[in-house]
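Minimal example, chain plus nickel (II) ion.
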Amino acid sequence: MLNEIKNLTLTLAPRLIEIRRHLHAHPELSGQEYQTAAYVAGVLSSCGIHVKESVGKTGVVGELIGGGKDERLLAIRTDMDALPIVERTGLEFASRKDGVMHACGHDVHTTVGLGTAMVLASLGQKLPGNVRFLFQPAEEIAQGAEWMVKDGVMENVNSILSVHVFPTIEAGCVGIRHGALTAAADDIEIIIIGESGHGARPHEAVDAIWIASQVITMLQQAISRTQNPLRPVVLTIGQIMGGRAPNVIADNVRMLGTVRSLHPETSEQLPGWIEKIVANVCSAYGARYQLNYKRGVPSVQNDAFLTQLVESAAVEAWGNEGVTILPEPSLGAEDFSVYLKEAPGMMFRLGVGFKDKRNYPLHHPKFEVDEQAIVTGVVTMAYAVYKYWN
Ligand code: NI
């Protein structure tokens, strides 16, 4: 079966590159993937897959019914949105939309999803079970997965697989991560409320700027002294606003930040932990505070069985030299984790790096992929799907 899948994919390769270049030239921002969705729906329909559009706002769902009797439903999720970046690759198929670019490889993900659908559809009766293809919008704003799940795409799903490109792995290789893959990412807003006064008479005022600086310092120190160093926490205050004049003590400071963590237990206790520190610093100096802790996406935790499945499919397909076991997770965020509240899942990394050319990072205006990776992605995904029921 592996050879059949490889041959089918190689035959499709020119078409897949054409699809990827079309998607790359016509990127759409999060939540506005109208043309992309219509295009995806067209390709899916043309290979006999039952298609539902406008799922999760601008998402697309395809249902492929296999010939086997295995009841377990496997979902494959790929994302379709692009970023507000001015492309500077100079490629002939570079973005034709000003200020919008597929700089995170979601054009490749969508192509891998479509290629997998084409290959599995042509297996016909030989496919042992049923597959649901999820083409998700709005991953970059971490909302698309939520929209899709609300529209019921995870109903009856037993397991879910996904893929993300990785420029630091060479094209032709697959990256496998056991356990945590990405971080939980939450937003915080801290408002310090003091009392205004003359800049020369601090004892008559409550200086919100000074107290805010104590809060930031204390939070950073407390990470090093009260958090388990083997369970990382990153807290970044990225925006701070307050004060009215150089000689007036500020009565109000607003700080906005992001909080990242990997371990679910750590993530659980973070809001209370932050509040305790903010409350204690404020009370020591007579200020009041407001804390808004907004949960973002949880950490992606790769399921042990599915990770084993994808790893063994990739090793069979590409040998040990084609598979990299990733020693470290990323503190980036990925809303694939939202599906994992409904069913176990696994996301693998698809190497897209060039051997002989500088590789720019994701979200860079010169980010490019070695298109060989598309065949690697489709074969790995399709073969892992096939093996799922065996
Ligand atoms: Ni991405």
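DSSP finds eight helices and 16 strands in the chain. Residues 104, 106, 139, 164 surround nickel (II) ion (CB under 6 Å).
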